[in-house]
Design brief:
Helix 1 (about 1-30) packs antiparallel against helix 2 (about 35-80). The longest helix has about 45 residues, at about 35-80. The chain starts with a helix and ends with a strand. By secondary structure, it is of the alpha+beta class. Strands 4-3-2-1-5 form a five-stranded antiparallel sheet. It is built from two helices and five strands.
């Protein structure tokens, strides 16, 4: 998302710089040798394309935010349905390695935009769950 925001800022700056340059050129042009109309039309077309790109970038940013919100809402709903149920998951052992553990989900949290389940002494993401039992 930072790359999209950087592109948007860059596009806005280019557009602003171009308009300032065009106005300066028009103010200072030789009345006996005016700017070529086809060149000006070409530059305006490029400016229009840049503006369209900027609008598309804004739309993508909006869609990305909406998608993230919908994803978190769906994960919350799924996690809420697991409260009170026993889940199995792979847990890291103190001596190294992993083993399957079972624990009852007693709480859900939202941390850094991620849904987390608390099952016994463990904090799990939804992707860590292997099975669910009533």
């Amino acid at each position: 998302m930072d790359a999209i925001a950087g592109t948007l800022t860059s596009a806005s700056k280019i557009q602003s710089d171009y308009l300032n340059l065009l106005v300066t050129q028009l103010k200072n042009q030789n009345p006996l040798d005016p700017m070529d109309h086809s060149e000006m039309a070409s530059q305006l077309a490029m400016l229009s394309q840049l503006e369209q790109l900027e609008n598309q970038t804004r739309q993508l940013q909006s869609m990305e935010g909406t998608f993230q919100e919908a994803l978190v809402t769906a994960q919350r709903r799924q996690a809420t349905e697991l409260i009170g149920k026993t889940v199995s998951f792979f847990a890291e052992l103190e001596e190294g390695g992993h083993a399957i553990r079972w624990a009852e989900v007693d709480r859900i949290d939202l941390a850094d935009g991620q849904v987390r389940l608390r099952a016994g002494d463990y904090i799990l993401g939804l992707g860590a769950i292997q099975t669910v039992e009533d």
